[in-house]
Amino acid sequence: MTLRLSAIELRHSDGTLALRGLDLSIARGERVAIIGPSGAGKTTLLNLLASALPPSAGQLHVLGTDPWQLSSTRRQRLRSRIALIHQAPPLPARQRVVTAVSAGRLGQWGLGKSLLNLLHPLDISGAREVLARLDLADKLFERCQQLSGGQLQRVGIARALYQQPELLLADEPVSAMDPRLADHTLALLCQHAIEHNVTLVASLHAVELALAHFPRVIGVARRANSLRPRRQRGRPGASRHAVCQRTTQPSAGFGCG
């Protein structure tokens, strides 16, 4: 099991409840979409799964271990096996695209190799190859500040794919792309997950994209009166999965399927 969460609760430093009573299991190689409105806890959940945030209560297992029972060094090694694609990738404006992509492996390299890569990219051909899959090979040596929002999102995706993670998390990864490009990019992400047996969890606003590309869809809501399963239909031939909504507070909550 890649991910297992039992009775998870998470509060922010100001005491705000972000997640409550969350039970969720995701097997290795599964492709799961999380849909729901802003403020429902999707980004918080992804940061929890990335071992960037500790739970306030409950049990969390990521890639077979509890991240918060590890030493900081071992937890950092665990994080090197996880890639998180941000909605707005945190890429330095003047950084060249080739450097941004190759930085995906900094967590797997030693300090010396990492510093050398910042001065001169060590694997230009590898970066070019993954960018070509996203139709960005011609942007290899451009600076990030020269790219559009959708292009920056694709650079962030290329960086994650170049990392070759076991767990791939994506937070609204196609929100700045037009519908055709968003569909193509999600298809590429899912195909990569299938080919490499990578677990993929992505949050999306567009329900139609979630149903078209992901065999399992989990719905979240900020408010619900009860836990009530409901059925969602995927694309023709796809299996159907229950989507649940759990009783929540206005500022918190998570549904599970």
UniProtKB/TrEMBL annotation:
Residue span, ABC transporter domain: 3-247
GO molecular function annotation: ATP binding; ATP hydrolysis activity
Topology in membrane: Peripheral membrane protein
Protein's cellular compartments: Cell inner membrane
GO cellular component: plasma membrane
InterPro entries: AAA+_ATPase, ABC_transporter-like_ATP-bd, ABC_transporter-like_CS, MetN_ABC_transporter-like, P-loop_NTPase
Location of region: Disordered: 225-257
Keyword Membrane among UniProt keywords: yes
Domain of life assignment: Bacteria
Annotated keywords: ATP-binding, Cell inner membrane, Cell membrane, Membrane, Nucleotide-binding, Translocase, Transport
PANTHER family per the UniProt record, alphabetical: AMINO ACID IMPORT ATP-BINDING PROTEIN, PHOSPHONATES IMPORT ATP-BINDING PROTEIN PHNC
Name of the featured protein: ABC transporter
